[in-house]
Design a protein that fits this description.
Strand content: 15-25%
Length: 742
């Protein structure tokens, strides 16, 4: 029941920060009379609780009408002028509103705000038609902090990655996916976990003296409940249903917007975000330039920069940048999705509680793309750029082959996997990914570094591992009994070819099986056979299709990756060709062979461990310093990749690059050029289908209508850009090893 507080006829003694009263004065008797005549009331009979600008002519009492003032009210300039935003235009002033403990900036328009309590309002702010806008003295604005006297159980945690809460992280204003990833994945390090809490609390006041904030040029209109909210400059809020305990980051360069029917509770909304049309977010952090709309639900989740979520549900997720998820029937539960992903309609990806506790989870590398109506069981893990065909996957999956296509079995229980599928049949998608994400990055300020090239150290290390796995499985295939080997064999260059290697395998020592199997894959270009991989799916394993073709493509793209990294290294020195001195210099760079996708930024595992050491030793004490460490890693990324590229080349050829022959260099350049040309030609062929395929034309009355709707292939801006990029790459490629070739 509400407590009845009688009005006092005595003057109210106010405790006000003296800084707030600089340049302010009390009302004159004439101004008080005007205010009274305009229907205003004050809880102080002498009106000593109201302070206005002391600048001459900068306070017009006529512009305050039908208001109730209590506590202290400190007003900035109020002059006879208007504020406009889109079609909304309102006079500067305050009308039909209740204000208590409020400070406003200059020339604000505050009208029909039924309850405005404990807020600091910036300059040129519009507040219009708001039921409640208040702030408690213990608000944290969505951050996982505690105030004096509060118990631990009131702290806000976000349960990313797992429904049982044991990967939970604390939200804070500067949090980026990299922070969330490191915090959620290395749970066994108890000291590190405690230090992350300390970093979050560092420099944050525990005093119960919080007030709400609306920064300059923000607009809030037609909203119901706004409680414990910090609103950034140039933010636009219209028709919000409930905003509680959140921070809305916004600026002139990256304005954020909230639209009709939105509910957001306990979280951080990033710069440049848009949340519209009955969307809901609870216990969340949204990165920069994200969209949440059409009834989407973001719960206990972190959503990375440049992501769009419509209609669906995300629960207990850590989502890296460039995530696309649309359509009403799709959802994600208890997942870590590492960015550049696209979740198709009706993809039911979530915990099925196949144990007695809600502890199942999924982790998917960059470029994860499940097809329509895909249904996954947990626990599951996917390498980078896995394309999942439509269907129900009845068992836990462990897909270690990057750039692969997977499909559920029809005639058997083994899952079907085509490694290197994207390179064999869909190179256009790889090329497009390389360019489209950079074009879609509209962040004004970059804090989270994002690797957008599909061929980067994180995916390359998976390719290296997959090559080894294919060789290992090929050794098993060659050692099978003849009858079983025939079942896995579709066709061979010749029957003698297969028998020759089966004979070699049977006679060699165990340590030599790898060498024989590798040689078989080198020479079996046209062979069509299957491999059985028992690690890909629980219980039934997987059948690996086209292993020899995948082996060849994997090796080619490794060479392309290495050439591109070395090219970027030497171009960064304003030269075109590598020298022996460059090779020596590169080999003095620390070699990192294990890499992590840390929130979108690809970092050496060794540098991550260095970061952990510095955090635990107290050398790093703030998240700002953590982010500076990320920046340092990014500044050395080209160097680290160049060193890794040399390692990859020498791994492929089993010798140092200093000992390469002319034949070695020629073969290397031929394979790299093949990949480069294949990227261009595949892209052209795919786009040509949109213009030449008969069935793409059947909906048009004639060619003129078709051209008016689709345009022509000659007008395709992406292909023009790709042509130029390919020509430039091939020119630089021919010069890259000019000084090294014998």
């Amino acid at each position: 029941m509400a407590r009845v507080v009688p009005n006092s006829e005595k003057n109210i003694k106010l405790k006000i920060d003296p800084e707030l009263l600089k340049g302010k004065r009390n009302l004159t008797g004439e101004e008080i009379a005007v205010l009274k005549s305009n229907g205003n009331h004050s809880s102080d009979s002498l009106w000593k609780n109201i302070f206005v600008s002391e600048k001459e002519g900068c306070f017009n009492a006529e512009l305050l009408k039908d208001n109730d003032f209590s506590g202290f009210v400190i007003l900035g300039d109020i002059t006879d002028s208007n504020l406009s935003y889109h079609e909304l235009s309102l006079p500067v002033g305050i009308s039909r509103s209740i204000l208590r403990d409020v400070v406003t900036g200059d020339n604000c328009a505050i009208h029909n705000v039924k309850y405005l309590v404990n807020y600091r309002i910036g300059n040129r702010v519009i507040l219009f038609n708001i039921q409640e806008m208040s702030c408690t003295n213990h608000s944290k604005f969505g951050e996982g902090l505690l105030k004096d006297g509060e118990k631990e159980d009131v702290r806000i945690w976000i349960g990313v990655g797992n429904e049982n809460g044991n990967r939970s992280i604390l939200p804070f204003t500067d949090l980026i996916p990299a922070d969330a990833f490191l915090w959620s994945r290395f749970r066994e390090d108890k000291k590190l976990m405690q230090r992350f809490v300390e970093l979050t609390e560092y420099g944050k006041s525990k005093e119960r003296n919080t007030f709400g904030i609306v920064e300059d040029d923000a607009v809030v209109k037609n909203s119901i409940t706004i409680k414990d909210v910090k609103i950034g400059s140039y933010a636009y809020i219209k028709g919000a249903l409930k905003l509680k305990n959140i921070t809305i980051l916004s600026s002139a360069d990256e304005p954020s917007q909230i639209g009709e029917g939105v509910e957001m509770v306990n979280g951080i909304m990033g710069y440049g975000c848009h949340v519209f049309y009955q969307a809901a977010a609870v216990r969340f952090v949204m990165g920069r330039n994200c969209q949440l709309k059409y009834g989407a639900r973001l719960l206990n989740s972190v959503l990375g920069d440049n992501s769009t979520v419509s209609c669906c549900e995300l629960l207990n997720n850590l989502i890296f940048p460039f995530h696309e998820q649309h359509h009403n029937s799709s959802f994600l539960i208890a997942s870590t999705i590492m960015g550049q992903s696209n979740i198709a309609s009706a993809a039911t990806i979530g915990s099925n509680h196949n144990s007695r506790s809600p502890d199942c989870e999924m982790i998917a590398g960059r470029g994860f793309w499940p097809g329509l109506c895909s249904d996954f069981k947990f626990d599951s893990r996917f390498a980078s750029f896995v394309l999942a065909s439509k269907g129900t996957y009845r068992n836990e999956l462990n897909i270690t082959y990057p750039f692969s296509l997977i499909a559920p079995a029809v005639e058997d229980n083994a899952i079907h996997v085509v490694p290197a599928y994207w390179f064999l049949y869909n190179m256009f998608a790889i090329v497009r990914n390389k360019y489209k994400f950079k074009a879609r990055d509209r962040r004004f300020k970059i804090v989270q570094h994002i690797e957008t090239n599909p061929l980067a150290p994180d995916s390359v290390q998976e390719i290296l591992s997959s090559i080894n796995r294919l060789i290992e499985l090929t050794g098993r295939y060659l050692k099978m009994p003849e009858s079983e080997c025939k079942k896995y064999t579709k066709s061979m260059p010749s029957e003698d070819f297969l028998n020759e290697y089966r004979q070699k395998i049977s006679e060699c020592q165990p340590d030599d099986i790898y060498i024989v199997a590798k040689d078989f894959l080198h020479k079996a270009h046209d062979a069509n056979f299957l491999l059985a991989d028992d690690r890909c799916q629980k219980k039934y394993g997987a059948l690996i299709y086209k292993p020899s073709q995948a082996y060849r493509e994997y090796r080619r793209v490794l060479k392309y990756f290495a050439a591109e990294c070395l090219m970027n290294y030497v171009l960064g020195k304003n030269r075109e060709s590598l020298t022996l001195e460059d090779i020596s210099e590169i080999k003095n760079i620390p070699l990192f062979t294990e890499w992590l996708n840390v929130g979108g930024q690809v970092m050496p595992c060794g540098k991550v461990q260095e970061l952990f050491y510095k955090v635990k030793q107290g050398e790093i004490n703030t998240w700002k310093e953590v982010h500076e460490f990320y920046d340092q890693c990014e500044s050395s990324y080209v160097d680290y990749k160049a060193r890794y590229a040399l390692y990859v080349i020498e791994w492929l050829y089993s010798k140092s690059i200093e000992y390469f022959t002319k034949t070695d260099f020629d073969k290397f350049l031929t394979d790299v050029a093949f990949v480069s040309v294949n990227m261009l030609e595949s892209s052209i062929q795919v786009r040509e289908k949109d213009f030449t395929d008969y069935f793409r034309s059947i909906t048009y009355r004639n060619e003129a209508e078709k051209e008016a709707v689709l345009g022509t292939i000659d007008e395709d801006g992406f292909l023009k850009k790709l042509h130029n990029a390919t020509d430039e790459f091939e020119t630089n490629l021919q010069k890259l090893f000019k000084n090294l070739r014998p």
